[in-house]
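Researcher: Here's a chain I'd like modeled. Treat it as a single chain, no partners, no ligands.
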Amino acid sequence: MSNNFAERKSVILDLLMKEGSVSVSGLAKQFNVTVVTVRADLAALEEEGLLLRTHGGAVPAQHPKVLERMQADKGIKGVIAKAAAQLVEDGDTIIVSAGTTTALIAKYLLGKKGIHIVTNNTLLLSHARNNPQLRVTLVGGEFRPEEEGVVGPMALQAIDQFYVSKAFIGIDGASAKQGFSAHFVESADLVRKMAEQADEVIAMSDSSKFGKPGFARILPFDGVDALVTDSELSGEFEEELTKANVRVIKA
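Model: Modeled as a single isolated chain. Structure tokens:
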């Protein structure tokens, strides 16, 4: 097997999603490398927040579905999050919803001052802890592992206490008829409440989610002020969004 770390990383993460755990000895045999090399690989992946090392192996750091989404189009997610972070100004108080792309905003706020984030996104904390300039308020409620987010009545009640300049919302799907949508009703309810509490609502999504509506409607297209997406968004959807007075930002 290749001694390339990137290739081994891909295989390790696939095994974690399928099997739920990996062993150092098993990986060393599969890759035909030393156990020292495998331990170094697992340590590097733990630093990325992708797994937790155990005695003799490792287990996923997140729910398998979250891990899968984190790895899917990882480069695009980072580009979108970086572009969204550029919309944040010093002194802003912002709300950030759950999601693998929205979580990355905290990573790209280095250098900005006086930023206060209100969020139900537990994945965001792994990035926020590396930036002492950020103040983070994590709302309470029911933790949903497959979303790495907090939902439910307690979360809705907590969000109602805040008023922010910008809300950065993640979505699971979008269509001209349904607008922006989520897979779960509880998630849609919470994101909609976040939008109500903000002066400006900014949706974040890669273009692959357009034309694939989710189960629960969050907001119509004209319910957001801007969309940060990638360069592959179709002209048809860009036209629909422009008609709804949505500013489309292609990262």
